[in-house]
Write a structure and sequence with these properties.
The structure is a single chain. The chain is mainly alpha-helical. It has one domain. Helix content is 63%, strand content 0%. It is built from two helices and no strands. The termini are close together.
Length: 75
């Protein structure tokens, strides 16, 4: 297996997992925030929510670095 093929697999897997983790996170603007009244207080991330946030950042960093690696080392 060549390094280019490996990087393509890493890109696909990290992109898919990043999308899934981003969609699973429940923070953000609700429908009421679009009309000016959010009704939510800012709280710190704890437990599973914090782990998902950190894991999302890790997968996005892996995704970006593997794309840069594929630009340097062609497939």
């Amino acid at each position: 297996m060549q390094i280019g093929n490996f990087l393509e697999i890493v890109i696909f897997v990290s992109a898919f997992l990043s999308i899934v983790l981003i969609l699973l996170q429940q923070r953000g603007a609700s429908l009421g925030a679009g009309f000016g009244s959010s009704g939510e207080l800012y709280t710190k991330r704890r437990g599973l929510e914090k782990s998902m946030f950190v894991t999302t950042i890790v997968f996005v960093v892996i995704f970006v670095s593997s794309i840069l690696g594929l630009l340097i080392i062609p497939a």
